[in-house]
Fold this protein.
Amino acid sequence: MEDRLDALQGVPLEVRQVRTALTREFVGLLDLGDLPALSPAQRERAFLSRALAAKAAQLVSDCTAAEAAEAVVDGADDHGIDAVLVSPATAEIWLVQAKWSDQGTARLDSTTTQKLLHGFQQLVDLQHDRFNARFQRLTGRVTAVLNAPTLRIHLVLAALGDDSLSQGGRGLLAKAASEFNKVGEILDFQVLGVVDFHSAARRDAMPKPVSVTATLSDGWHTNSTPYQTYLGTVTADELAMWYEQHGERLFDQNVRYPLGPTNVNTAVIDSLLTNPHEFWYFNNGITVLCDSVRADYFARRAQGQPVRLELANPRVVNGAQTVAAVHHAYGLRPQTVAEALVAVRLICLDGAPTDLAQRITQATNTQNHVEARDFAALDPQQELIRQDFALSLDKSYVLKRGEPEPAPAAGCNVAEAALALTCAYPDADLVAGFRQDSDVLWRRGPGGAYTRLFGSRPSALQIWRSVRLLRQVRDELATLADGLEGRGRVVADQADLLIAHIAFQLIGSDGIDEPGDEWEARLEATVKLTGVILSTLTDRLNARYGQYAFLIRTFRDGQSCRHLVSDVLRSLERGTDQQTTAPRRPSRERRPNTVPLLVEHGLISDGTQLVYHPNSATEKEALRHWLSEAPERYLATWVNDSRKPLVWAVDGRHYSPSGLVLRIWEEARWMERPVAVNGTRSWYLPGEGSLAELAGELLADAETAGDGPGGE
């Protein structure tokens, strides 16, 4: 996977996610047989260009991925048309021109528009023999639709970049539409940009809504104020069918999935099987949220009369364990379970406040024990992280207890992510706090660990690399512990998180969320130091607290952990400088990181002044007073050093961009600072842009100069 990430160095996150989504959706569907001589990189770029054309066709016509792939005609003799989608049923034709950009900087200019209009003119003039073999397969359908009295033709210009069409290009399209539509409204045009494709990728990553039917017998009640609510009962077998048809999709908004054979769930099953007629009295029932309700009465339309309710996008937010237990019991004795009734509360969210669903979910989950971690599943930030994992890394990020855990190489869960980010956090107090009470990671508000870890949403790549470092350090410690006895063995077992924290301080966070292998090389070298960290920590522990210190309590005390980390880092800095320097991997062609790229091109002159801009409203508010006390705190001078190019105006010391941002956060005593930062987005060259933006322009210029096949 890291080899693939090498090619994405400096690429915006949205573009990386679109790239992953296109690859996942269209791999194996698109024909590249006409490009046998291309290099692997050129072949991938041609694939992405065609996939972009197919996705554009799919977005504007709502066809399937296979139909969109079949519509692609990109290649020699395509005459500016990358995809032709024909709908005989509606007498419509979509002609797509797509421009791919690895950096998300593709532009729609007059030349692009002219090519598409030229191909359009040939198509309507029935000069189909001029097109390539891919187009020839569609000739019959195209001709038939062109002769239809209700013909509509849609020109679609798609670019992985800004969706603004040049003034000249828009004028050409407007003129063509005006002339062609003199005989009726036949021709129109549409422009798609990176925002459209990224939104589609995010929608595709979301679970599709389902619908179920709830049959309420006599005696149910409804309230319409303030929100539409139905109170009644359904038969247990109907509930079992919900789960049979839709499984855990019913619990997407619950704080967890069914937990299996807990004592509570086993009792539910026993009650259903032994005394179904009394089940209603002993069970709390379920709460279901839905987007809309359609009522179908069996006879008289009145409250309390038998009714069948069709629930759109139902979510069981309380009672997931009951539903799963009913389904399990139904599989054992369906006729017995069919005699049981289950209390239901159905709440329609149409017109309700946007946060009502979350508040109901938090308030109603009390039947089985709810852990503090479970409520993280309700945080919208966590859903964005899950999407980032799927779109950027093609990996799973599990939010809820009870959901199947991914294989180690296939992803992680939110608890492991939180623990890894805790170890990466600059202050060892969080690690000590976790040793005292693991729920500390989920506490929010001022000073809360959860806010510090996830408040400024970390990227999927940052989390995944943090998880991998923690895993590898712990694996190394487990191996080392087998050969240790006594105190050394106890330190290896009890201080694993503190040792991982020290490893994170050694490796640093610079570049952790930038694709490429530089950080990977540092990870490999840092893991090899695990044994050195262990022995140094043991020595420093004995020197500071004596050989009889109560280790378990020591590793739970924040101040003790901070002292030990400081001691170990000073010792390593004095005695193991060569060991802590990450070796370079053999050089190979890949995109450089931002700072080396800027230094290599000499884009910024030595002595140029840069200004620090906080990247979020939270960061800006937290630092506003401290920064305003001394204006020089905003300022740094650039020197062309690929490792530490910034000289801070406050102390005259050299820093990396991320290192200086972290130093500013530390000096400002920002307690809720994030785990890591992309510093190249925080330092600006006045009038030019951030360091990341300047590097992106360099890469875009290089890409334009070497434009590969399939880009038109």
Summary: The two ends are 28 Å apart (CA to CA). The CA atoms of residues 52 and 115 lie 18 Å apart. The chain has 31 helices and 20 strands.
